[in-house]
Amino acid sequence: MFKIALCAAILAIAYAEDGIVYLMDPTGKSGVTGTVRFLKLPSGINVIGDIRGLTPGKHGFHIHQEGNIQPSCLAAGGHFNPFNKQHGGPDDADRHVGDLGNIEADQNGVAVFDFLDNKISFDGPTNMIGRSVVVHEKVDDLGKGGHPDSLKTGNAGGRLACGVVGVVTVK
Which residues belong to the active site? Predict the structure, then answer.
């Protein structure tokens, strides 16, 4: 029975549509680059990334509304928020769909991460395909910082790098 279940799982993965985004700074000033994969699992979307050129520490990491990254990632718009919620952390019930929290860069400026999110998807009103992923200059306070921007943006500062989520079909 285990072998049948394992084969079924492998086949399901082999024909999955996944998302990918290549991050860059359109201005060339920050030097931040990276790749993020979005893998559909039964329990949500597995977010796997490798981003380089960051300052050490935490950086806000979000999916933004628009799939336009020019100029300076500003045309990406605000956080992806189809249900008009306030900004929050990834574990909060009340949050923007695009609120993925923080990634953390090591002393060499490299952030490698792997986490699960159950709000974003590849279809319906929470579909992230064609939207932008943005890495911010500062830590996201997850809506709990008390700053006027906390409940809108997490007060995460400027945009260091961005890219548009595309589809990868694996067969």
Answer: 62, 64, 79, 87, 96, 99, 136, 159
